[in-house]
Amino acid sequence: MPSKSVVVGSAVGLHARPAAIIAEKAGELGSDVTINGVDASSSLMIMTLGASHGDTVEVAGDDQAAVDEIAALVERDLDA
Amino acid sequence: MTDLITTDLVRLGADWGADKHDVIRALAGVVDDAGRATSRDQIVQDAFARESNAATGLPGGIAIPHCRTTGVSAPTLAFARLDPPVDFGAADGPADLAFLIAAPTEGDVDHLTILGKLARALVKRAFTDALRSAASAQDVIDVVTHALGVPAPATTAAPASGAPSGAANPGAGETTDPPTPAS
Fold first, then answer.
1. Nearest to B116 among A32, A39, A47 (CB)
2. Which of A36, A47, A55 best tests the B interface by mutation, with the highest count of B CBs <10 A?
3. Which positions of chain B have pLDDT values less than 70?
4. What is the domain-level CATH number for residue A65?
5. Cβ-based burial of A61 (10 A; exposed 0-12, middle 13-18, buried ≥19)
6. Residues of chain A that touch chain B, judged by Cβ-Cβ distance less than 8 Å
7. Which domains are present in chain B?
8. Which residue of B has its CA nearest to A15?
9. ipTM score of complex
10. pLDDT digits (tens, 9 = 90+) for A1-60
């Protein structure tokens, strides 16, 4: 299964707005993606990770393109 | 602003069987009974949809079935201590602590910030221990409120809600300086 380790780029971590942006994108994708094992299409589940800026997380899923897309969002500062 | 959770949204020792769907139905019923649901069926449907997408069981005996739904008009949290515990798909076993979290579809970032605090608290041992030892619904509210760090209602700047015209009469406002508890 494709997976990718990425560093959280948002200054606030995977919280509130960044989590919502990632979840929205993950919900639009045709295949399931997880971040550290939790459903990436749920902002609430993402927030349970408590991932801070600079933490490394594992993005995984069946589809490489979907994984890449979510991984890229995780790396970006979405709260900027 | 409506409280996220109140004592009538708490159930301790809930025996709702072994099926998580029944637990979700029952929790939606709790929300409805508390007068917080615009559509109980919609909450159930949206929570089921989320659940079918991916399990909402977290490590440590916690389940957080949740949804954005038109079935509520304000973010609402219902809590049940389940006896017996129910499998919500967590790798380490069934859940005895269940929160149904329903957020309006119109939810803004403020909601998310609050829910994020809850999400982070949920995975802390001290929080779940306190929920397990809570002796009353009020205890649960206190634990949750503390975890959310909800400040005394500081709802300033809400001119849209109709600041009573010309009601700038000093002294009428109850300036309740909370007695700083020397804890």
1. A47
2. A47
3. 1, 107-109, 150-183
4. 3.30.1340.10
5. buried
6. 15-17, 19-20, 32, 34, 38-39, 41-45, 47-48, 50
7. 7-107 (3.40.930.10)
8. B116
9. 0.78
10. 899 999 999 999 999 899 999 999 999 998 999 999 999 999 999 999 999 999 999 999
